């Protein structure tokens, strides 16, 4: 493989994916990097290289894309909870014999002052929140909101990037708009302004979304935190630097 014809597909949607795209474009060129976005945000931040929106049509569609675009390697830098995308990537890469690596952020660890209630599924969070808070910052993304549709007597704060296309399936809520990463001071102001007494979030790891965890700690606000399912059958690293090393070691390309 020569440096002038290498072509990378990044399964993106995270800050790390953006950083990797920027670094690869700076080492190769705009045409050498394609970042695929699942489409959860209508107006994503600008990215280096090419952008592809929408699904591939399952693993077979992904294989077809590999051949069409002559993909040299796949970098899975999706959200740690996007397991279906990762599973499709594993199958497609193995079948098409395309080298692949998965970047999974190291999960957050509970620190002194954190009031955490760890669960493994959304339904567990629904079951225990009823006795824990009345003004809840539901920081899970709009797709997860419907799981809480049957909860009564609780007000929810929902933060989104794009306006919802239809009313949310919640009995009592308010929407605020914002795109992270946020500062700790901004999260503290948000909690205090809306008198939040409970945070529900996923343990997505990394630094981009950690400010709300620090804010909850400083305000003594409990957190229902959903732990990530980390079972994945592919090479896994925890940082963009390790991805670059993998490219150097496995593909013989200097980054």
Keyword list:
255 residues; alpha/beta; Rossmann fold; 2 domains; 6-stranded parallel sheet; 30% helix; elongated
Structure description:
The longest helix is centred in the middle third of the chain and has 14 residues, at 83-96. Strand 1 (8-11), helix 1 (15-27) and strand 2 form a beta-alpha-beta unit. Helix 5 (184-193) packs across helix 6 (211-218). The chain has 255 residues and is α/β, with parallel strands linked by helices. It has 2 domains: 8-106 and 230-251, Rossmann fold (3-Layer(aba) Sandwich); 116-226, Rossmann fold, CATH 3.40.50. It is elongated and about 55 Å long. 30% of the residues lie in helices and 20% in strands. The chain starts with 7 loop residues before the first strand and ends with a helix. Strands 3-2-1-4-5-12 form a 6-stranded parallel beta sheet, with helices on both faces. It has a 6-stranded parallel beta sheet with strand order 6-11-10-7-8-9, covered by helices on one side.
Lay out the secondary structure.
Blueprint: E1 8-11, H1 15-27, E2 33-37, E3 50-53, H2 58-69, E4 73-76, H3 83-96, E5 100-103, E6 116-119, H4 122-129, E7 135-139, E8 155-160, E9 173-177, H5 184-193, E10 198-202, H6 211-218, E11 223-226, E12 236-237, H7 240-251
Parallel strand pairs: 1-2, 1-4, 2-3, 4-5, 5-12, 6-11, 7-8, 7-10, 8-9, 10-11
Helix pairs in contact: 2-3, 5-6
Radius of gyration, in angstroms, nearest whole number: 20 Å
CATH superfamily of the largest domain: NAD(P)-binding Rossmann-like Domain
The biggest sheet amounts to: 6 strands, parallel
The CATH topology of the largest domain corresponds to Rossmann fold
Helix content: 25-40%
């Amino acid at each position: 493989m020569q440096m002038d014809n290498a072509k990378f597909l990044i399964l993106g949607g995270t800050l790390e994916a953006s950083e990797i795209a920027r670094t690869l474009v700076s080492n190769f060129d705009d045409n050498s990097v394609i970042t695929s976005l699942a489409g959860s945000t209508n107006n994503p931040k600008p990215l280096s290289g090419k952008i592809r929106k929408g699904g591939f049509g399952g693993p077979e569609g992904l294989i077809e894309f590999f051949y069409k675009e002559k993909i040299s390697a796949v970098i899975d830098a999706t959200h740690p909870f996007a397991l279906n995308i990762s599973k499709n990537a594993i199958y497609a890469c193995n079948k098409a014999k395309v080298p692949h690596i998965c970047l999974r952020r190291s999960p957050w660890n509970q620190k002194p002052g954190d009031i955490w209630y760890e669960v493994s599924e959304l339904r567990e969070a629904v079951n225990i929140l009823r006795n824990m808070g009345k003004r809840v910052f539901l920081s899970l993304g709009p797709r997860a909101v419907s799981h809480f549709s049957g909860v009564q007597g609780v007000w929810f704060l929902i933060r989104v990037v794009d306006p919802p296309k239809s009313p949310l399936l919640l009995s009592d809520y308010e929407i605020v708009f914002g795109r992270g990463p946020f500062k700790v001071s901004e999260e503290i102001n948000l909690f205090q302004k809306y008198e939040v007494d409970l945070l529900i979030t996923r343990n997505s790891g990394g630094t981009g979304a950690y400010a709300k965890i620090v804010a909850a700690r400083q305000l003594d606000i409990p957190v229902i935190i959903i732990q990530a399912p980390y079972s994945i059958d592919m090479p896994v690293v925890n940082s963009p630097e390790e991805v670059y090393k993998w490219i150097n070691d496995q593909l013989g390309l200097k980054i």
